[in-house]
Design a protein that fits this description.
The protein is α/β, with parallel strands linked by helices. The protein has three domains: 28 residues; 156 residues, D-Maltodextrin-Binding Protein, domain 2 (3-Layer(aba) Sandwich); 87 residues, 3-Layer(aba) Sandwich (D-Maltodextrin-Binding Protein, domain 2), CATH 3.40.190.10. 35% of the residues lie in helices and 20% in strands. It has a five-stranded mixed beta sheet. Strands 5-1-6 form a three-stranded parallel beta sheet. α3 packs across α10 and α3 runs antiparallel to α11. The chain is globular, with a radius of gyration of 19 Å. It starts with a helix and ends in a 20-residue tail after the last helix. The N terminus is likely disordered. This is Glutamate transport system substrate-binding protein. It comes from Saccharopolyspora phatthalungensis. InterPro entries: Bact_solute-bind_prot3, Solute-binding_3/MltF_N.
Length: 298
């Protein structure tokens, strides 16, 4: 099994090098990918609902991350690409709104609730873990994916073998302000050794320069960062949490939540969910996930 994984990583590293070469030559982000999403031109909604308002406006504002390889990464053309972006496009399509009418708003971890509460976005699709604390401020549709928290270190690091090894080794660990992983890692590391930035790309830079010895967040985010490192980083591949990703919306909008859940269900049934994965994160994590059981809207 280990030999197969090593060969896979070698192939992926070669693919990444080609992708980065393409970017350097003015091409798009090959790992970001993308699909052509069907737009429901005949979409009809109950007057006064969020769906009806968006359909009439002909545009939708979606918050996502701009620094998350494979899920939400801003390309050279200024547009984000990745699995979260594709999920946003699928929902917009069900509203009758084409991809070129989506306004993408950067939504890093620390501001996701704020941009929803302040009405700066209509929804947030941004590796957004559903939890009770966030439900106090906003509502979630989904989940549309389940990740797990893991740890990334330099490829030659043999001291850090899992979360339990962080405190004994005195490792400095990096995560992002306002993220679930930043809170959950506190049981494994002294707070004085926890380094927090606003985006994960800064954590990767800190790991590269030796300012920290580990980066922790959801495995799919780390997978993208590791692939971009050209072999400098590795995942421990020992996830120690379950992180259901949801779509954040204004608190209490049950009808909008139900609409989004229906859109996810239809995407799963018609194959567009699988295509979205295969065109983005599936270029590295080749096993297509199953759509998780959707939570009831409330």
């Amino acid at each position: 099994m280990r030999g197969k994984r090593t060969r896979l990583v070698t192939v992926l590293a070669a693919s990444l090098a080609l992708a980065l070469t393409a970017c350097g030559g003015g091409g798009g982000n090959q790992l970001g990918g993308g699909t052509n999403v069907t737009v429901d031109q005949n979409a009809q909604f109950e007057p006064g609902t969020k769906m009806a308002d968006l359909k009439q406006a002909g545009t939708v504002r979606i918050g996502t991350k701009f620094d998350q390889p494979l899920f939400g990464l801003k390309g050279l053309d200024g547009k984000p690409q990745g699995f979260d972006v594709e999920i946003g496009k699928i929902i917009a399509g069900k509203l009758g709104i084409p991809a070129d009418k989506i306004e993408w708003v950067e939504a890093p971890s620390k501001t996701r609730e704020e941009v929803i509460e302040q009405g700066k976005v209509d929804m947030v699709v941004a590796t957004y873990t559903i939890n009770d604390a966030r439900k106090q401020r906003i509502s979630f549709a989904g989940p549309y994916y389940e990740a797990g928290q893991d740890i990334m270190v330099k490829s030659d690091n043999t001291q850090i073998t899992g979360p339990e090894s962080l405190r004994p080794t005195g490792a400095k660990v990096c995560s992002v302000i306002g993220s679930t992983p930043a809170e959950k890692i506190k049981q494994y590391v002294d707070e004085s050794n926890l380094v927090l930035f606003d985006v994960y790309s800064k954590c990767a830079d800190a790991l590269r320069t030796g300012q920290v010895q580990a980066v922790t967040t959801d495995n799919v985010i780390l997978l993208g960062l590791a692939e971009q490192s050209g072999g400098q980083f590795k995942l421990l591949e020992k996830p120690f949490t379950k992180e259901p990703y949801g779509i954040g919306i204004k608190k209490g909008d049950v009808k909008f939540c139900q609409f989004i859940n229906q859109a996810l269900t239809q995407a799963n049934q018609d194959g567009s969910y699988a295509k979205a994965w295969q065109a983005t994160a599936g270029k590295v994590a080749t096993q297509t996930p199953a759509l998780p059981q959707l939570d009831p809207c409330s």
